[in-house]
Amino acid sequence: MNSITERRMNSERQWGNEGKLGFFPTNKSIVDMEMNLIDFSELQGSDVTLNIADLSGGEGEQLNWMYQYLQNNNIKAEAYYNELAEERFNKGMSNYPYFNGVNTDIFELRVANKSNRNLNKKVFSIIRDNPPYIWLNKGDRNVRAEYEFFIKNSLLDINGGIHIFELPIHQLLGINNLISIINYRYEMEIFKFPKGEFEKFKQVVVICKKRTVAQRDNAKIGEIKFNLENNNIPYLDEVQGPVFKVNYNDFKKTPPINLFRNGRVTDNTLANGLNQVLDELLSADKKDSEVVSIERGKPLIELMPGHISQILASGGYNGLMGNLLIKGGSNKVIQVIKETEDDKEITTEVEVLKPYLELTNSKGDILYRNF
């Protein structure tokens, strides 16, 4: 990941290379304005505890202000906080010890029920999403962090949940398909930061409510793009009343959760672990294969359910292991052997079993393939 610089963007920086780096730390008055756009009346004084999150949380101030806003409106909440930079994370946890915090790359973050550790996706009632404004390396491509952070966060909020997405206006317009992707998953409204700040920093907020059923609204997308291009977006401090209302029945479903860092599996670990399976396929009596462990210390081979090596040898396997899709088996192929005897070439065809494996992650990236 590129280095992240904390800075306030001026108008000159916004349109140059510097405008594509760093992030914008939002102040308390704007956080309160954003929260005022949501009608929480069904939750006030209720038995529901909201799961609120900021998974690129800086020093945690904005998440704390959001928590305070809910407390002041008689709404119970648990705050979940992640920050990659260790110094900022430590400061956030020191200042706000009630946070449920983890210090990791957002793309290595996992959430699970406190009761049974089952992995979950739709667990957060409200997500704050103010990503770093940087380029990220994804495979052989450079991608914008704003896009990738939005996608990651959008997998984690409940149907009917709120997603507060802050970014520079030129990135909202300029990142290919970003508006369409937001609209597909959410009802959405866009507001400029108050005039004085917007003129300096070109910042907007997208207030989103998660759709129960994803759908593409081409008319709305066209309207949004037209309004952005023609400076027809209202300022936050000029909005009268809420734009979305949250429902008790949607929010009562959020369980207490844990945040934790996923065990990182490197390319080397994957290659060595899978090579071991192949070795076992080809030679059952081979005992000298190296067992390579992931960071939690559990051998990769032990993670494979149902003695996959035996299943592969018997014909084929196609199943899930966590968030990995494993496809494999043995194909019958004709091996041609050419030999020379007494200056005469002899060709022999032999039917053999050739094992194959393919490992694909939840994003569709092929991590390993041997065919």
UniProtKB/TrEMBL annotation:
Keywords: Plasmid. Residues 17-239 form the DUF6094 domain. Pfam families: DUF6094. It comes from the Bacteria. This is DUF6094 domain-containing protein. It comes from Clostridium botulinum.
